[in-house]
Amino acid sequence: MNSSAILNTAVTSAVPLPNVTRMDFPSNFVWGCSTSSFQIEGAALTDGRVPSIWDTFCAKPGAIRDGSDGSVACDHYHRWPEDLDIAKQLGVNAYRFSIAWPRIITEPGGVPNQQGLDFYSRLVDGMLERGLQPWATLYHWDLPQYLQNLGGWENRSTIDAYLSYVDVMTRHLGDRVKHWITHNEPWCTAMHGNWDGMHAPGKKDFKVALQVAHHVMVSHGLAAPIIRANVTESSVGIALSLHPLRAASKNEEDQEAMQRHDGLRNRWFLDPLFGLGYPLDIQAHCAEYLPEMLPGDMDAIAVPIDFLGVNYYFPETISAAPQNPPLHTELKLLADRERTGFGWEVAPDGMQELLCRIKQDYPSIPIYLTENGSSYDDHLDQDGQIQDTSRRNYFIRHLDALKQARQSGVDVRGYFAWSLIDNFEWAEGYLRRFGMVYVDFATQVRTIKQSGYWFRDFLQLKK
Fold first, then answer.
1. b/e string for 80-94 if b means 16 or more Cβ within 10 A?
2. 371 is catalytic
3. Which residues form the signal peptide (predicted)?
4. Is 418 annotated as a binding residue?
5. Among residues 154, 185, 316, 428, which one is catalytic?
6. pLDDT tens, 305-356?
7. Is 353 a catalytic residue?
8. Fewer CB in 10 Å around end: N or C, the chain?
């Protein structure tokens, strides 16, 4: 998920809760929870795994707010049966996970690591035994460090390495896993990793960021036919982090700034995905930073997909900022807005607005909410309970917005809550808790929160 910190003060709201039930959605609607490998697995030196760019980034002084790392995280590598049992207990019918590339291909051009393959076989079999439909994400930011040493996603050869890895994984799991997400949030891979430096590998070069974004999107397009060749009845998509935008004012400068920000934040990824190429206005504005491209690249990116994954968290308010090249924009924080403990605005209407915009601006495509959730400062009370009422209310309000989007004709077919369990929240370390399940990171004890019990009750069909 996108871990760019905005503000660290939660602001709550007394907005009346809407009435939304499981019966407001079709019987075949997908209800899931999402996780990612580096954030939960731990076992950094176990069974042949090699370092990822996040292991290296965590070792950099000051990179992680609490000075922690993901070497243990939630120890999911050893505790996955318990975590899948909890997912089943919550009543979800799908489980979105990501595969750690550094567990599979441990050196440039190397043969697959059987221990890594075996782990994901056990994990997928465990999902199926519990009635959980596996949704696999092939890349959730943990690039092997040996590839970063060769230039990472800036180097076009990483595309070839990725395709080899995709081929291995889809051949290995394709008999059991039918739903595949090529990349999670290419914006974060490119921009947080290479422009603002908040994420691994920690670079601050806008031209590099655009080159990385291009190579990631090309790799997505080239991976799709490999997946389809290896997996019968496959369903292939990509998960994008998208934000509805508001201009800070009605003046022309802020309106234009919002358009520029939208061009890079949303359209730079959506437009080429649907065959429209990179936005011409952003190409003109950022002409000196444009990526190197080869003939056929844009056709590759525009390969048909079976679904679009949308990760929605919050809207952004944008103003003009001539002092901030190259976009000359800045994010404005409006003090009167309700916010999570992470400082992210709570705006269920933004979800509905975003989904309706996708329906209006792009070809018809099935949509899954592949991430949606909130971070609050959860604590165990004296009875060993976690009363995370704000997160429960967040789910209620956003599911109502999802219901309304569907009623407006948006083809949304599933919802994945972020996240199943508290985890390593990237540059924030263990300071942020998004889980429906509380994790005591000292003991690894799991405790279902109030929001998790609410989600369980919501999913139970009343007879």
1. beebbebbbebbbbb
2. yes
3. none
4. yes
5. 185
6. 999 999 999 999 999 999 999 999 999 999 999 999 999 999 999 999 999 9
7. no
8. C
